[in-house]
Amino acid sequence: MSSRPLRIGLAVADNGLPRELVDQVLRCPKLLVQAIYHPRWNLCRKLAEQHEAVACPSLQTFLHKSEAAVVIEPNWMGSLFVRECLLAGKPVLTFPTATAALRDTDLEDIQKVCRDRSAMFVPGLSERWSRSTLRLRELTATNLGAIEHLVIKRSFLEWNEQFIPWLDWCGYVVQSAVESVELTREGICQLFFRRRTSTGEPVTANLERPSHDNLETIEVQCRHGRVTISGVDHLQWQTDRQPVSEDLSLDRNVIAVMLDLFGRRVVGGLVPVPDAGDLLQAHRLLAALLQSQREARRVEMKIH
Question: pTM (2 decimals)?
Answer without folding.
Answer: 0.92
